[in-house]
Amino acid sequence: DTIVQGMSGFIASTGFADKPVKVGTTVSDLLAGVYCATGILAALHQRHRTGEGSRVDISMLGASFAFHAREMAGFELSGQEPPRTGNVSPIGVYPFDVFECRGGKCFSVFCSFDDHFNAFCRVIGAPELASDSRFATKEARWERHGELESLISDRTRTWDREELLKQLLLLRGTEAFPAGPVNTFADLHRDPQLQHRHMLTPRKGGAFQAVGNPIKISGHWEDKVSQDAPTLGQHDSALRKEFGAAMAGGGAR
Questions:
Q1: Residues sharing a CB contact under 8 Å with residue 215, sequence separation 6 or more, in sequence order
Q2: Under 8 Å between Cβ of 104 and 49
Q3: Which helix H or strand E contains 107, and what residues bound it?
Q4: Alpha helices by DSSP H, 56-133
């Protein structure tokens, strides 16, 4: 996976200016699987319509490269490599970043417009930043985003993260903007929205929980408990019977 991430543009476009990094999860493996499933569904639909079968051909490289349409379009237009900007948006908007609160907990925000920025500054207790001529426009905030990041972080580090997010989510109208926690896996383990979506399902053996299916289809019953992996030969007899094979010798070998 890491090799294909490097070959496809993921590593070149991820990380900070002085160091490229790979994506945390095995994204190239997973993308190939998702595209393969989509291709199979399209082929089945074609067979249903025409009666003709198809061969579905997916490569990890192609699937990973397909996710870089924006970066490749920028390169085609400018001839410049897409910059690695870490947690900062590459589209010239700030604050679009990750900030730290007390205890090292982090959150992310996306302030696109002046009303967003003004409200954010007011909530974190830094209204003077909104009236500072250095940050008066979107362009000025982007040009000085390193300086602005430091000033914002000085305030956010004094906040409890959950309390700050609660205050940000109370914003309404033109002042409202996206904000959310940077969850650890311990946070995810007890996340109420993931629980509501049945995205963590207990294993039948009870030792741990498994990641659930993100696709929810109306009328389709979803298991509340994930089945354990079968033991060697557990389904031998049933499979032999299903496929009409002679039962020679009994169990698995």
A1: none
A2: no
A3: strand 106-110
A4: 60-65, 69-78, 114-124, 127-130
- Comparing C-alpha atoms, which of 205, 202, 200, 212 is closest to residue 231? 205
Q: Which amino acid type is present at position 22?
A: K
* Alpha carbon distance 51, 196 (integer Å): 41
Give the list of residues 6+ apart from residue 140 with CB closer than 8 angstroms, or none. 134
> What residues contact 202, with CB distance under 8 A and at least 6 apart?
209, 210, 224, 225, 226
pLDDT in tens, 13-65: 999 999 999 999 999 999 999 999 999 999 999 999 999 999 999 999 999 99
- Specify whether 29 is catalytic: yes
Considering only CA atoms, give the Rg of the chain.
25
pTM as predicted: 0.81
Q: Which one-letter amino acid corresponds to residue 229? A: A
189-197 contact pairs (CB < 8 A, 24+): none
Q: Judge residue 194's burial from the number of C-beta atoms within 10 Å of its C-beta, 0-12 exposed, 13-18 middle, 19 or more buried.
A: middle
Question: Residue 183's Cα: distance from chain center in Å?
Answer: 11
Joined tokens for residue 77: 């237009």
Active-site pick, 1, 18, 29, 236? 29
Indicate whether 197 pLDDT > 50.
yes
